[in-house]
Structure formats: structure tokens, C-alpha cells
Amino acid sequence: MILKRLSVLNYKNLEQVELTFSTKLNCFFGQNGMGKTNMLDAVYYLSFCKSAGNPIDSQNIRHEAVFFCDSGFL
Predict the structure, then answer these.
(1) How confident is the model over 12-20, as a mean pLDDT?
(2) pLDDT of 8 higher than 90
């Protein structure tokens, strides 16, 4: 299966992000602290229903938010 789109809300330092992926090659780049690793962790969460770095769901919610939502479209 190929992930076509990812939607993330209040996950770690990501407030609201929607990405559409290419079927060929996708790259994440940016400055430190921008959320590149958290986007990859959101994909991991979709696959395994847990964070790669923190298995406690309540600690993955962005500060001052009450929930997070992570959804993908194949």
C-alpha cells in the first residue's frame, strides 16, 4: 500500500498539517525543531497505533490541546 495523503492535528509540535505524497519520491527538509521527525512518527503511529519514541498517547498531544488526530489515505 502507498500512503497518498496524511492529515495531522495537534500531534507533538504539529498544530495542523496536511500532506499529499508523490508516488515516486518524497523528502522532508527544514530547520531543526520544525517537525520533520514528528511527521515521520505520525506515519509510524498510523501503522502501529503507537509512537516510535513515546508509547504514552497523552504525552504526544501538542501543548495546550486536548486531543490529537492522525489520519492517512491510501
Answers:
(1) 96
(2) yes
Count of domains forming the chain: 1
Asked if 70 contacts 19 with a C-beta cutoff of 8 angstroms, the reply is no
Place of cell 504539529: 14
Identify the domain containing residue 57 by its residue range.
5-22+30-73
pLDDT at 1: 83
The DSSP-derived string for the chain is ----EEEEEEETTEEEEEEE--SS------STTSSHHHHHHHHHHHHHSS-SS---GGGGBPTT-S--EEEEE-
Per-residue pLDDT for 33 more than 90?
Answer: yes
